[in-house]
Amino acid sequence: MKKRRLLIFAILLGLITLFISFSQFISPSTEEMGGTEKDFSSERALDYLKEVAKEPHPMGSPANKKVRDYIVKYFQEIDVPVEIQSKPVKDIRDEKYAAELGTETVENIIAKIPGTSGDDNAILLTAHYDSVTKAPGASDDGYGVVTIMETARALKQMQAPKNTIYFVLTDGEELGLLGASAFKDRTDVLNKVSVMFNFEARGNAGVPILFETSSNDLKLVQLYKKTVPYPIAYSFASEMYKRMPNDTDFTEFKVTRKLGYNFANMNGLEAYHAETDRVENSNEGTIRHFGSYAFPLVKKYMMMDEKEFQALEESESDAIYFPLMKKTLVVYSEKVVIPLMVVLLVLTAAIFFYSFKKQVIQIKGFALSFFAMIGSLVAIFVCFFLLIRLLTIVFNGGIDEYNMIMFGKFDPTILTLLVLLAVMFSFFFSKWISKKYGIMNFAVSTQILWIVLAVMTSLTFKGVSYAFTIPAIISLLLVIPIVLKLNWAKAVYHYVVVAGWTVPSILLLAPIMYLMYVALTISIAPILAILTAIITFPIVAIVNWLMTDDSKT
Hints:
Layout: H1 2-21, H2 30-33, H3 42-52, H4 62-77, E1 82-88, H5 95-101, E2 105-113, E3 122-128, H6 142-155, E4 165-170, H7 178-183, H8 187-190, E5 193-201, E6 209-213, H9 218-227, H10 235-242, H11 249-253, E7 259-265, H12 284-301, H13 306-313, E8 319-325, E9 328-333, H14 337-357, H15 363-394, E10 398-399, E11 405-406, H16 412-437, H17 439-460, H18 462-483, H19 492-520, H20 525-546
Parallel strand pairs: 3-4, 3-5, 5-7
Antiparallel strand pairs: 1-2, 2-4, 6-7, 8-9, 10-11
């Protein structure tokens, strides 16, 4: 009965933790953004989008020239000086490439709000206004374009900025970052710029995420945390993006070694570069969230002085960062990663020493339990891999060039069912391994798996190390009194131990799993199943361990 209560407690606590953690994926409401003329309005931005994304407008097309003229006229109407930068395509790539495109010239839109202190420490906001041939480009990159347009309007309602603000809408991004490459000729602008913001989209829904920054970004991200009311940023996404072949205009601009932020939303992947990327399928909440980044950040940077910019530029450390829930972003230096790993290893040594001394585990049983657990993870991976391939055949799912599988519109129900199935597998293997090799041996082996993952990521993939290191440290600290069989480490304390594992592991790892699913589709299901098992194994093992006679003596 006690075991059942403890397990139910873990399940309920896990669901509550998921609810709290996933609140970060809720965009701010209209009321939260404010409703005055001086506030960013997603409703106005959506009106601009109706003109920007009226039809497909690839570079060089008559439709693209209409979009260009609309944006230029808009800046003129809000009294922001604007110009068009033109450059022959053959001067960016080569004549053969230009001939294949059938387009001679790339045309960037450059608007400017002059600063009272001159052009030094200028701010650059950028997005691309061209679309692919078959899509109106409402999200890609209409979201970025209208975010910049509405931000410019709101800024014009305020006092003149101290630092100059440039708004650059590039052309030809879809054909190879042509506009961004051409803009590098404008050294008269770039040499004055201190910080850049790029706005992109890889789908038509979901919250935008800070997924890339300039190097040595600790102070940069800390400022983002303090300034933005609804920050969502993941250092794991930044490191993962570095390992991917994808590019944005930010790729061209960051070679200037300026401070910079790169934002994009990822949900609604079925609309990416598709005919359905239309205004009627747009998400106003996503645009609103983009505005909640752009407007506050520009207001902050446009009034900063030379010393504040210099402090950001002199940062010598990259940041580890992740949200806990809505409005809460954790940021710390990458230099802390290795010391945390050392603390974890010291705790691990202490656990092993006392576990053997108190005869909590046996070497042979522990080793067999650990390898059995690894074998079960392999079995889970294979089962899910075959399951997804079977579903792809049955439901005629499409597999693209990046091996991503689409079954139509994104549905979180599918992710939920996959996780539940993985949990069932985990319970089955947990019961089998515990019965065959001992509950305590299995419990300690699950902890060792997390420790191994923490050490591996701390050494090779620091941006995601927090998701394994922090839960492992908390869990080991709470388990030590149980291993030492202290008299007070029972009853209510058992619930503390279960909570100490359940909350951190789900809080930190579940959002990563969700974003992986959104970004890489159901094709990532085998990996998600393994991660689900890695979370579930210790919960089941600890509950069983705490309910044994040994833990009560």
